[in-house]
Design brief:
331 residues, alpha/beta, Nucleotidyltransferase, domain 5, 2 domains, 45% helix, binds 5'-O-[(R)-(carboxyoxy)(hydroxy)phosphoryl]adenosine, binds zinc ion
Length: 331
């Protein structure tokens, strides 16, 4: 068995993370230092604060990942680091450290696309998983349907034309006075509400693209109108009805794409993959169609460095010393 040790480094947004992976699937450590409490009082991530916190945390986080893995830094064979998409200043912290370590240790450096990383979280949660499959990537910044025929072959079938699914969750939550990040809060509140109480419009986009800005405006209008008329709002019903509209839209498109492209494995990825209703909806739909359904364990859904190490391991292409951050990197 391959014993290559990959150190993964992730600093694209508000988590400072490092992980050590043996071979392609054996996770030896996965350390995540979250900045969420720091950004909460601002209602979202403040880029400069994120960069400054990464620079403070990155070395202790790497040290902890190395120690927890029970290895020495000099045992590491390669370093995989996120180079985009993400916040420029945040990405640069991880990149500078990764480049310096690779240079000092004289080991290869691998530049990883964060979105591809999210998909690879599934290989760690389900070691038996192999391509080909269809992946729905739903995060704070992206919503995309991707056909993966091989570890290094990604075909973008569709993506959001405006807000990402997670962004819509976060914005609605913010208006409802819920703390950042809003996705988990809406998820919790929705459990107490009636998902068919309010009929929000389903986004109407043909093909496999998505759009959530119209739905977001509809929910905001609903809340504003009720407030102006001084009518009581059942927040749990709003959360449940909004969540159902998003989840139904995501699930419908995913299942149609799986049928059209004859893919019987569906792989959920990204922070919104932690949504209990999305997971339940897709799981039930997959069972009915005899599709296999995969989604990462909760800790691997949101940003982490284990998924970056795993993506890096399978990538087999290396970066040179001029590697730079690409904040708006696509697939
Ligand atoms: O993948 P991720 O950690 O960061 C990005 O790459 O963007 O995703 C973060 C997003 C946030 O928008 C957050 O609200 C959302 O994932 N999220 C959820 C849940 N947990 C996290 N959205 C809905 N339900 C959840 N349980
Ligand atoms: Zn992410």
């Amino acid at each position: 068995m391959d014993k290559t040790l990959t150190l993964g480094i992730e600093t694209s947004c508000d988590e400072t993370a490092a992980a050590v992976l043996r071979g392609g699937r054996e996770l030896l450590s996965n350390v995540i230092s979250t900045q969420i409490p720091l950004h909460q009082k601002f209602g979202g991530v403040v880029p400069e604060i994120a960069s400054r916190k990464h620079i403070v945390n990155i070395m202790p986080v790497i040290d902890e990942a190395i120690n927890k893995a029970g290895v020495n830094l000099c045992d590491i064979n390669q370093i995989a680091v996120t180079f985009g998409p993400g916040l420029a200043g945040a990405l640069l912290v991880g990149l500078s450290v990764a480049k310096s370590l690779a240079y000092a240790l004289k080991i290869p450096l691998i530049a990883v696309n964060h979105l591809e990383g999210h998909i690879f979280a599934n290989f760690l949660s389900a070691p038996e998983l192999e391509p080909p499959f269809l992946s729905l990537v739903v995060s704070g910044g992206h919503t995309a349907l991707i056909k993966m025929t091989d570890y290094n072959s990604f075909e973008l079938l569709g993506q959001s034309r405006d807000d990402a699914a997670g962004e819509a969750f976060d914005k609605i939550a913010r208006v409802m006075g819920l703390p950042y990040p809003g996705g988990p809060e809406i998820d919790k509140l929705a459990k107490l509400g009636n998902p068919v109480a309010i009929n929000f419009p389903h986004p109407k986009v043909t093909g496999y693209d998505f759009s959530f800005s119209g739905l977001k405006s509809a929910v905001l209008n609903f809340l504003n109108t009720a407030q102006m008329k001084d009518e009581p709002i059942n927040s749990a019903d709003v959360a449940a009805s909004f969540q159902k509209t998003v989840v139904d839209t995501l699930a419908e498109k995913t299942l149609s794409a799986a049928e059209e492209f004859k893919l019987d494995k569906i792989v959920l990825a990204g922070g919104v993959a932690a949504n209990s209703s999305l997971e339940k909806n897709l799981r039930t739909a997959c069972q009915r169609r005899e599709f296999k359904f995969f989604y990462p364990t909760k800790i691997l859904c949101t940003d982490n460095a284990a998924m970056i190490a795993c993506r890096g391991y399978y990538q087999k292409t290396f970066a040179d010393s001029t590697l730079n951050a690409v904040p708006n990197l696509g697939l």
